[in-house]
Amino acid sequence: MSLRISFFGIAFTLVALSATAQQGTQVGFGNPEHDSSAPVEVISDQLDVFRSEGKAKFTGNVVVTQGLMKLFGDIVDVEYAENAEGETEIQWVHANGNVTLLNGVEAAEGDDAVYTVATGVVVMTGDVLVTQGENTLAGEKLTVQLDTGIGEMEGRVRVLFNPESEPEQPE
Q1: Which among 4, 20, 35, 169 would be 20 to 30 A from 12, CA to CA?
Q2: HEC states along 38-57?
Q3: Tens digits of per-residue pLDDT, 90-141?
């Protein structure tokens, strides 16, 4: 893993410590080998389908999985549409309430997250907290490009860097 995508590399730490409310901080997040074209699985306690609108609402212990990425929430709304081949594809996933995003060994928590499947981008808002081992990064908005493993934390960015903790790397 290069320094550019290493979550707590020295360059990241120096940039993060100098962040202000108006600037974003580039961060690495998860597995840069994410495949946005992989199947998406959604598990929940209840499902309501609104076929004419191309939407579905999953409620209760919702888990959305695509490859190594998992997105958890109390309520998850999904918009889907048919592609050129007539197959149904998920366009976006909107999770809210107790939202957690896991990607490899990293985790992010927030109030709300929108995952746009075609672009592989997750935008998480509301007191976002990213953890990796004993290291943490907090801010108001996290935008992650899952296909590259690079994200940006915006808002008043706070970092707790523990140089003695060595985060596990996925094999």
Answers
A1: 35
A2: CCCEEECCEEEEEHHHCEEE
A3: 999 999 999 999 987 789 999 999 999 989 999 999 999 998 778 899 999 9
User: Cβ(95)–Cβ(75) under 8 Å?
Assistant: yes
What 3-state DSSP class applies to 167? coil
Neighbours of 165 (CB within 10 A): 11
* Cα radius of gyration (the chain): 16
Distance CA 126, CA 142 (A): 9
| Dist. CA 16–CA 34, nearest whole Å | 25
Report how far residue 9's alpha carbon sits from residue 27's, in angstroms, rounded to the nearest whole number. 10
Note the maximum CA span of the chain.
55
Neighbour count for residue 64 (Cβ, 10 Å): 23
The 10 Å CB-count burial string (b at 16+, else e) for 77-110 is bbbbeeeeeeeeebeebbbbeebbbbbbbbbbbb
pLDDT level of residue 17 (50, 70, 90 thresholds): very low
pLDDT digits (tens, 9 = 90+) for 48-67: 999 999 999 999 999 999 98
- The pTM score is 0.77
